[in-house]
Structure formats: structure tokens, C-alpha cells
What we know:
The structure is a homotetramer.
Chain A: H1 25-49, H2 52-59, H3 66-69, H4 73-83, H5 102-119, H6 121-131, H7 135-161, H8 171-190, H9 198-213
Helix pairs in contact in A: 1-2, 1-4, 1-6, 5-8, 5-9, 7-8, 8-9
The structure holds a DNA duplex.
Amino acid sequence: MTGPIVDGGDPGAAAAEERGLPRSARGRRTRQAVITAARAVFERDGFLDARISDITEEAGVASGSFYTYFDSKEAVFAAVVEEVQDQMLHPHLAAMDRETDIVAAIEANNRAYLMEYKRNAKLMALFEQVAQIDDDFRTMRRNRGYAFAERSARTIRRLQEEGRADPELDPMVAALAIGGMVGRMAYSVYVLGQKVPFEKLVQTLTRLWVNALQLRVDP
Amino acid sequence: MTGPIVDGGDPGAAAAEERGLPRSARGRRTRQAVITAARAVFERDGFLDARISDITEEAGVASGSFYTYFDSKEAVFAAVVEEVQDQMLHPHLAAMDRETDIVAAIEANNRAYLMEYKRNAKLMALFEQVAQIDDDFRTMRRNRGYAFAERSARTIRRLQEEGRADPELDPMVAALAIGGMVGRMAYSVYVLGQKVPFEKLVQTLTRLWVNALQLRVDP
Amino acid sequence: MTGPIVDGGDPGAAAAEERGLPRSARGRRTRQAVITAARAVFERDGFLDARISDITEEAGVASGSFYTYFDSKEAVFAAVVEEVQDQMLHPHLAAMDRETDIVAAIEANNRAYLMEYKRNAKLMALFEQVAQIDDDFRTMRRNRGYAFAERSARTIRRLQEEGRADPELDPMVAALAIGGMVGRMAYSVYVLGQKVPFEKLVQTLTRLWVNALQLRVDP
Amino acid sequence: MTGPIVDGGDPGAAAAEERGLPRSARGRRTRQAVITAARAVFERDGFLDARISDITEEAGVASGSFYTYFDSKEAVFAAVVEEVQDQMLHPHLAAMDRETDIVAAIEANNRAYLMEYKRNAKLMALFEQVAQIDDDFRTMRRNRGYAFAERSARTIRRLQEEGRADPELDPMVAALAIGGMVGRMAYSVYVLGQKVPFEKLVQTLTRLWVNALQLRVDP
DNA sequence: CATGAATGAGCCTTCATTCAT
DNA sequence: GATGAATGAAGGCTCATTCAT
């Protein structure tokens, strides 16, 4: 194990990890092929069981070419992550104005999140694995999770001030807990294979969420 | 990676995995030393980074002696798990009679769970890691989780029938979700290091839990 | 390139470089076989062209066994050096009392040195090569050379005081220079293959030496 | 390792080793840039640790361009050597007529030699290293050394005939030995770092030299 | 049973050299 | 000619597993 997978707090600067971006178009193509292959191999075999040679074989390049662009398996993984940033999902409570139908908003939120999660289940499983293996990725992920939780917490606080949410709750802890609940259910169902129909999942999580915060639709 | 870590659904039969229990007292002592050392090394270095030789060194036995008792790293891990079965915690809703103060029961439940989790944080981190690495352990753990969830689900169903819990909720999905919420918060706080004071954690989770199920203390 | 070949100033402590001395007799035998093989391979192929696998093959052991005893090629080399310490020759002027026939003593000295050098020519060539490749060995060797030169310098100083040697000469510089002259001639003849008959070599060097210091047999 | 570095006895024909001299001005410039860079890198990192890519990087050209002009690292080294032929120093006794003040001539000789050696210490260290690594360069160097020694030997013989030098000495062996003495001292001081002030070095070596040959200023 | 050395498969990594653009 | 990416042979090193003592 070598360098950090990602720069903890600054997801955009992951490039520092790599051996230099290609100058030629051909180089860009090869680098991309390696990243794409890496993702496929990681999703197929897991991070641990993926060998560099599997990746280069999948990419159709010589084994040495890997090192033209990356220092280590961690480094390609970072590049893969950079590509799928947006798919590093975190359930959260969007900001909302007074007119929004909160319940509908939460349901829409959950539906979108779960749909994406399901669609990217392999990737999600990969993230879960790497978070248990690589400290840097774990940290990056945790930081992102906190950022999302903070946004949710702000919304909760506002709802409390408006008398529309249980005032006894600590907003940040509640946000983390509820986000965690949704996230883990997605994992249980779409990674571990717990059988729950999609709609029932959406409905139940939404209801639990609304209940948990004691949300009132209108002030 | 070789044999399965545990026999999925039957936690008691894990011994089948090992090379036969020692008959002599000396043998029993050596085997025990290896297991104890394995736990220490796993907690210290993680499952992945632990080498067989680290374990035997920690145990103060020759490296070859390992194979007198175990086939693989997975096999010792199974033995470690067998020893700490009771510490494979799962948050759940205990069965309760009509007279029980539900809120107090849930709070006591959470408090006990979180305390144990905190006390065994290293072990919990280990379990989390191995679950991402070894399919058999993952399955075993999932099965245990389901078993606990089923118990909770039964309680929820009864509370619904008694009009003391939100009748709209699917009991099993709700049980899984709420259990997941508590479990993941414990992980966030005691493994990832998210700073939340113990009491606030207990109170918030309990309240979220009570709210989520819309529990009413008395029918 | 990894660790230092030898501990610069303390030639006896080279063992620190190795991975642990064998506890069993068998281990000692294997370690010895590796060292012996290493010497043979080094003398045959040179340090640079010697592969670890050549050494283990020559020793008749598995490639991995090398690492049971040594960390690197440098480390075995250090072990080889330790074994042949005494053969790290340095020409020098032995201490001598007033009665000694100085010229005869120098001749005997040179004869012995050149004989040993010739006998160990392959080893000498190896030392010469490694000194150009490895800083630590180079330093160790230089230090030994200085130590020998200092002894010679002391003798020269005494001879000067007794009026038996050119008083104009700086004893240490002269010692280094004359030692270097003899050492390099040995190298030229027995490593580079410059053709000079043994006796002529002994006689000429002795005479040059005696002349250079303007030695007088009797005070 | 591939082709010979130099053509043993014929230092002028080294060009044969290269891929053909460039005709265009651009080509000539590139080739020169590579040679200059190679020298810098060799002096900085040593021959062994210098990678082709280090050289091209230093030269500011593409790695592939190297092979337009040279076949191998040995080949550029040969080109570097060709450029600094004159700096392949060898201490020697210049031819001299009867009127020359021999001692003054030797001193001037030594001074010039040591000055140049000091100025080119990095290059000298490089030569010393490569001589231990590459047979062809070693041979070339030895041949040059012999040629210089032969010249010195001729002078010694004449001095012997004139009764101005020790008639007992074999001229060639003496020439080699004394040349070696001076050469090695220069190495000790300016490469290995043995601390000797420049003037003391010149004086001591000159005196040793004069003594060794038993030179008499006037017949 | 215990010991600890021996084994060798397996994967990583470097870098000289080639070659398409 | 110049470029710089692609290639793959070559060797290093680790460590799970075996086995003679």
C-alpha cells in the first residue's frame, strides 16, 4: 500500500496523485482506457482481488503502461472516484422554502437516491469495500457525508424554528442518523440483497423519516 | 482467500472449519494462545494487514504451529468470532409485555448497545472490515442481523395491533431501517470518530426511534 | 539499492544488516551456503551482474530462502566481507625495532602482500568494483586504508627521528602515497593483467619504497 | 549492457559506436545537447544510476530522440569521453633534454596534473566508476595509461643511461608504479576526500618521486 | 505436538527500446 | 528529425504453506 487514494478534503485535486497527465491525444485515450478498465475490474472483482495486470489486460494495454499514468492501484482508484464523484451519493434533506410540501420533497429525495444507488450498486459496493481498506478514501467519504449532514441539519434547524419539526432533537445528530438509516438500507437491499420492493422501500423510509423528525406539513 | 470463515446460518458449527480440536492440554493451550493473539493482531492491524507470522509471533509460538489448528487466516478469524459471539451486537427492540414502559426500554436498549459498541470499538471496526472482504462472514453477519430484525419486527407488529405504533409501517422494513440507523451511528461515532457525547447520542437515537415508530407509551 | 553494506567505522558490526541469525544448525548451514555461493557468483559475474536468483541457484536453495537471511544483495555482500576481513589487504610499513633490517622487512611485507593479492585477485577485483558502487563499503574501505596508513606513518616518523628516513617528507602523506603505489600496482598486474613477473614486481616496489623514503639500513 | 564503450586502442574512432552523425544543424544541436546533458547527469548521479530518461530530460529532448544518436548509455558515455579526451589525465614524466631542471619539471608536472584532477574531480570519479563497470572503457583507459607509462619509461631509461637515475630500477615497472602513486593520491584526496593541502600534496609527491628514482639534478 | 527453515507461486515495478504520429 | 507513449522482458520480494527434525 502506498500513497493516499484521495486528498481528504479536496476531492477536486486528486490529480496530484497521478504520474502526470498525458500530453498527446493518444495518451489521453490510453489513460482513459485504463480508468475505464479499472472501474470494470474493481466492480467485478473488488478492489482487493484486482491485480494491476487484470486492469491493463482489460484495457488492452501493456502492463507497463499502467505506470505511465498511475503509481498504484490506489491512484487509479482515485481517478475512478474522480470520474464518478456525482455518484458518491449521500441521502440528505434538501433546503426548502415554506411552500414546499415537505413530505413530497423527502419522498422525491429518497426515490432519487435509491434509484441511483440501485443503478450503481456495484460501485456502491466497491466504495464500501475500499472505505474499509484505505484510510484516505474513508476520510474523504466521511467528510463528504458530514458536509451533506450539515446541510440537512440546517434545514432541520429551520423547520424546528418554524415549529414544524420535533424541537427536542439535536439537528446534526438527527441528520447523521437519518441519513445513515437511508444509506444503510440502500446498502442492505442493493448490495447485500435483502429483498424489499422498491416502492415499499421508498414509502417506508419516507414515513420513518417524517415520523422521526415529527414533521408537520403546514406550520 | 480459501475456505469460508463461518457456516452462514449456524454460528455454533464454525468449528467444522478448523483442523480438529486438540486433545492434549498443551494443544488446547496453544490453540487458545493463537486465537487470543489473532484477535489482538486483527484489532491492531486489521484483518488484511495481519500476517500469519504476526499472529504466531504475538502468540509466542512457531509459525508452523498455526497450521496445527487452523487452515487459514479466515479460520482463526472464525474462531475469534466464535469466542466473541455475544459481542456481535445488533440493535433491536426487545420483546415486551403490556406493562413495560416502551420508551424506557428502548433507551435502556440503546444505552446498553452503544456502551458495548464503544467498549469493543476495535472489534466492531474489524467486523466491518472483514464483512467487506469475506463473503462468508458477511453472510453470517447479515443473517444474524435479519434474525434480530425479525424479533424487532414481531414486537413492532404487536405494538401496531395494540394501536401503540404507526400502523402504516411495514414492520420488517422498519425494524431493519431503525436497527441500521442505530448501528451506523455507533460506527460513525466510535469507529470513524464523529464527535457526539454519549448521552446526547443515546437520547437522540431513542427519540428518533420512538418518533419513527410513533410509539405511544400507553394504549 | 537499499541499506548500507557495512557500518562505516565498525567493521565487526555488519551483522546488524542481516535479518536475524539462524537458530538451528540447519539454518546456519543454509546461511553459510548462501554466503559461499554469493562470493562465488560475485567473483564470477561481478556484483552488478549477480542476480539474487543466481546466488540461490548456486547455493542450491529456493529463491525465497535468500530473504530469510539477507535483505538485499548489499547485505550478503557485507556478510561475504565479514568472512574475508583479513583478506582486505592494505600495504603498510610494519612497526619495527632498531635491529630490524628495514629493507628486508619491507621486501617481506611486499612479498606477502602481493602473494595474497594474487591469490585473491578475483576478490580484490570485486572489492574494487563494489567500492565504486556502494558508498558504505567505500567508506569502510577508506577507513581501513587510513588506519593502515596511520600505522605506517608512525613508523616513518620514528625512522625520521632516528635519522634513517628523509626528514622532509610528511609521514602521513608519504604513507598514503607509498601504500597507494603498491596497492595500485597489485591491481594493475593481478586484476588488469599488466604483465610483470612476480619477483621483478617485488624487487622494484621494494626499491622504489626504500628510495622514496631514503631509508638507511643503519643509523 | 550492450556494445563496447570505446574502441580499445584507437580513441579517435569511437564515433563508430554511434548511429551516424547528424547532417542537419538541428540534428547536430540535439546530439550535442544530449552529450552535454549526459555528462552532467553522469557526474551528478554516476553512470549506474543515470537513466536514459534522466539524460533526455536534462537535455530537454524527447526520450526517443536519444536513440537517433546513440545505441545505449555506453555509447553516449563514449561520446562524452571523446569530448573530454584531454581530461583523461595520466601522470607521467615528460621527455626532457639535458638542460632541464628535472625536479622543477616533475613538480610542474605534478602541479598541473593535480590541478586538473581537482578541477575535474567529478569526471575523474565517473571514469573510476565506469572503469569498474565497463570492460571496454577499462581497456581503453589501461591502454592510455600504458602509453603514458611507456613515455615515462623511455625518459627514465635515458636518465639511467646518463647516470642520473637509479640504474637498478626496471624503467617500465617504475614508471607504472610512480604514475599509479600520483594517480591514486589524486583520487584519495579529490574523490574520496582525504584532507591534504594542495601544496603539501605537490611537494610530497614530487619529493617521493625524485627520491624513488634517485634522481640527480646534474650528471 | 512444536519448531522454524525451506519453498516457490504470484504480483509488482522499472526502464531500455521501439514505433506511430 | 522529434515526440512521447507503448511495450514487455527481467528481477525483485513477500508470505502462505509445507515438512524435516
